Amino acid sequence: MASFQLAQVKLSWTALLTLAHFTYLLIGATIFQMLEREAESNNRNHFQLEKLSFLANYTCLDGPVLEKFVQVILYAWEKGVNPSGNSTNPSNWDFSSSFFFAGTVVTTIGYGNLSPSTVSGQVFCVFYALCGIPLNLAFLKQLGKWLIVYLGRLERGMVAVVPHKRAVEALAVSLFFVTGSLLFLVIPPLLFSYVEGWTFGEGFYFSFITLSTIGFGDYVVGTDPGKEYISLYRSLAGIWIIFALGWLALILNMGARVIKNVVVLTHPGFKRQEEEDEVSSSKLEVTSKI
Fold first, then answer.
1. Are 71 and 100 contacting, i.e. CB atoms less than 8 angstroms apart?
2. Which of 100, 105, 164, 172 could form a disulfide with 234 if both were Cys (CB 3.0 to 4.6 A apart)?
3. Alpha helices, H only, 58-118
4. What is the pLDDT along the chain (290 residues), one digit of tens a residue?
5. CA-closest candidate to residue 245, choices 128, 109, 53, 151
6. Phi/psi class of residue 162: alpha, beta or left (left: φ > 0; alpha: ψ in -120 to 50)?
7. What is the DSSP secondary structure assignment for residue 186, as one 8-state letter?
8. String of DSSP letters for 122-148
9. 12 vs 18: CA distance, rounded Å
10. What is the Cα–Cα distance from 52 to 93, expressed in whole angstroms?
């Protein structure tokens, strides 16, 4: 009877997560469609009007020739070449940019605005990612452990002053969250806004989309051909990404732990089922070693 109840709890929790996950996706799809579809239609109509106006002003050109030129521009963009400006545009493959690209590979951000165009570069990218992604995950895991140790030291130091452990823990986590937010999600967008000419909202959007490894590629630092960047600008941005990822991963893990604790408090059977799963996995590990 008990095993039946645990199985029922497990099934209901799985069903609840599945329902919540797909409901979240459906809600997101609906809202994005409402927000973006009209803007896309307006942009498409504007582009078509601009093409017609261009053909009307330059009668020596015809539609097929213009379409071919548009395809050339699109091809250049897909290969990482900014079609605006001229041949003096900064290289996408100087050391600083290459370092930044290597960081986007191992962190799986993949902006999509730049990729290897040679067969040898593509093959190397595959094997580089195969080795680099596990190495990056191991580094982020170790960085997370170091941050947890630092957080523990902060809590112990505060407990020595204020002997209220629960309150101190909450305060220490809050300080850790606020300090990290300032260092990784507030100050960098301000710098990016100043250097790139973005608004703070655009800089914050770029920072979060980058650190969450979504990486749309609509905003990327150091790509404006009309600006002169310091040589290490993109390398410094890559270093910021690595350390900020470690902080954000720890924050997200804390959030997942809070959700798990809430579920355990509201559904005690889930905790028993989880303990049985851990015992079963431990037995399997022992059996495999034998």
1. no
2. 100
3. 63-78, 95-106
4. 555 554 555 556 677 778 888 888 899 889 988 988 898 888 888 888 888 888 888 877 777 877 888 888 877 777 777 777 665 566 778 888 899 999 999 999 988 888 888 899 999 999 999 999 999 988 888 888 888 787 777 767 766 666 666 676 777 778 888 888 999 999 999 999 999 999 999 999 999 999 988 999 889 998 887 788 888 898 899 999 989 988 888 887 777 776 766 666 666 666 565 555 555 555 555 555 45
5. 109
6. beta
7. I
8. HHHHHHHHHHHHHHHHHHHHHHHHHHH
9. 10
10. 37
DSSP states of 171-204: HHHHHHHHHHHIIIIIHHHHHHHHHH---HHHHH
Residue keyed to tokens 């106006």? 53
| Contact between 235 and 96 (Cβ < 8 Å) | yes
Span between the terminal Cα atoms of the chain, in Å: 32
Which amino acid, 142?
Answer: Q
